[in-house]
Every structure is written in C-alpha cells, then in structure tokens.
Design a protein that fits this description.
By secondary structure, the protein is α/β, with parallel strands linked by helices. The chain has 13 helices and 11 strands. The structure holds S-adenosylmethionine.
C-alpha cells in the first residue's frame, strides 16, 4: 500500500481507538483490509482507503478489522483461579447484605472473558445472588459476536474445558452457542476506553486485560485514572499478565494499591485515594440477570 494510504488509515485508527500502528506495519494493515477491499469491489487497497475516508460504514468496518481481537477462554488461567479462590469469597462476604455483584469486561473482544467469568459465577455464586456482567469494546463487530454468543470449534479448542462445553453450550450447526441462562447475565455496550467514560456505575471486578499494550503511555495513564472511580472501593482491577503499572506518575500511583493473589497482581483503589476521590453512584438502569446456583 502507498505510504500516504497507510498514514491515512493509521491516523484514523489512532483518532478513533488510540491504537498505534507504527510504520512498517503496512503488511499487517494491508492483510486486514484486503478482504474488505475485495468485498467493496475496489481494485487496490489505496482505492479502498479512499472509500473508507468518505464512507462511514466502511470506516467502522476497517476500524473493526484493525483492532486486535486475540482472546481465549479462561485466558492465562491464573486470574480466574485468583477470582474464584480469593476475590469472590471476599466479595461474597462484603456484599452479603445486597447479594449482588457487578463485573465489567472492558475490551471484551468476542466475549470469552465475560462468559468465562459467567461460568465461574454459575458454579460458585450461592443461590439468591444476582450478577451483572457488562462487556464493552470499541469494535461493534466484536460486540455483535458477544451478543450472538456463537463460537467455532477452533475457538472452543482455545481453553474451553470439556465439562464446561457440555454444560454451557448447545450445538448450533458447526458452531457452539452459549446457553441462554449465561447469556442473560452479560450485556454489551460500545465504549471507547480512550474517551471519557459514560455513566456506567461502579464494579466489584474490572477486567482491563490485554488492551493497554496497544496504547501510548499518556493514553494508558488516562485510562487508569478514569477507570479508578468505576472500581468499588473494595473491588479489584485486573490487567493482562504482561501489563504493568510500574511507570505511573506519583499521583496516579497513589490511587492504586497492588495485591498479589497467587500468580496475579490485582490493583485495588488505594484506601487513602478512595476517601478523597468522588465515586459515582451505580447507574440505576443497570440490568441484572439472576443466578439460582449451579445448573444441574
Ligand atoms: C487483545 S483483545 C483482549 C480481549 C480480552 N480482554 C482478553 O484479554 O482476552 C483487545 C480488545 O481491545 C479492544 N480495543 C482496542 N482499542 C480499544 C479502545 N480504545 N476502547 C475499547 N476497546 C478497545 C479491541 O477491539 C479488542 O477486542
């Protein structure tokens, strides 16, 4: 692709998602845009880029194609183990009066993260508790995938234990579809982490995993600053296993405590910061699914 086309696309993606495409990633951009270009009847990628610049539908498609959606079930395992063994028992004790948990999968990709958590809650939440799992992403294509909740055999092979496959999926042609009882726990919303957040309330657990790596440092810091009031004062923030917060400026550093849970480092709103930073009240319209304990 021509350098000018690459520049146009790279600036578009940066502007819309804050994802950085460095020079020399032309081959990647070209590979991802090629199918869209053919579909749109363009004779070259450069022609397609011109189309993207004037057509909002193609613009969204190209942004969707250029977000990296790599994910898997129970990705890295350790965070999910830390959740069931440590975080969930602590939250069950802390929320015993209202018996409700809320979880946010920020940058949810095709939904494996949100549904993995939903499966664990199905197995470990006592009867009578309700749970709300919000799955957000900048890619509308990914949000549709979460709503459709259908996965190919290749995707199922990436981390889905056989027992959970049998329990939580129905066959749908060549794909596997998440059972309705789990789907009802997960709602989706379009949310660009690089922009000011809408009123989404506070969450007991926020999964912000494997997305900060795509941003530059000011964007990463901005997100960690803005996400702070959305983590309950006794809640948890989980980052990806290769994502650290070692480079935070002092004021942002003071906002977060780190807690080592098994092989996972969880971030928690610092006790001192929590008392001085205004925490928005939970949004009254948050829908919740209910669980009645483990399925038979
Ligand atoms: C590599 S996937 C990670 C998925 C999942 N969190 C995991 O760890 O398996 C990164 C996701 O971040 C999303 N993303 C990229 N930029 C974003 C932004 N500015 N706001 C929200 N989501 C974004 C992408 O669309 C993609 O689905």
């Amino acid at each position: 692709m021509a350098p000018a086309s690459f520049e146009l696309i790279a600036s578009l993606v940066l502007r819309e998602t804050s994802i950085i495409y460095e020079p020399r990633k032309e081959y990647l951009v070209e590979a991802r845009l090629h199918p869209l270009s053919v579909q749109a009847g363009c004779s070259s990628i450069d022609e397609y880029v011109q189309l993207v610049m004037r057509n909002p539908v193609e613009r969204q498609k190209s942004i969707d194609a250029l977000t990296i959606n790599e994910t898997s079930w129970f990705r890295d395992n350790a965070p999910y183990q830390a959740f069931t063994e440590t975080m969930l028992p602590a939250l069950l004790a802390a929320r015993a009066d209202r018996r409700r948990l809320s979880i946010w999968s920020a940058a949810c990709s095709s939904g494996q993260e949100a549904y993995s958590i939903a499966m664990l809650l199905d197995q470990h939440l006592p009867p009578g508790w309700t749970v709300d799992i919000l799955a957000t992403d900048v890619s509308t294509a990914m949000l549709s995938r979460v709503q459709n909740a259908r996965y190919s055999q290749v995707e199922m092979n990436r981390g889905m234990p056989a027992t959970s496959l049998v329990k939580y999926f129905n066959r749908a042609g060549t794909e596997w579809e998440v059972v309705p009882s789990l789907r009802s726990l997960v709602r989706t919303r379009h949310l660009n982490l690089a922009e000011p957040f809408p009123m989404i309330g506070t969450f007991d657990l926020v999964l912000l995993r494997n997305v900060l790596i795509y941003f530059d440092q000011p964007t990463r810091h901005g997100i960690l600053r803005r996400i702070h009031p959305h983590v309950a004062s006794d809640g948890y923030l989980l980052l990806g296993s290769s994502e650290t917060t070692l480079d935070l400026p002092a004021d942002l550093n003071a906002m977060w405590d780190r807690e080592q849970i098994g092989r996972v480092q969880a971030h928690r709103p610092a006790t001192q910061a929590a008392s001085t930073i205004a925490v928005p009240r939970p949004h009254p319209h948050i829908a919740s699914g209910s669980l009645t304990g483990a399925r038979p």
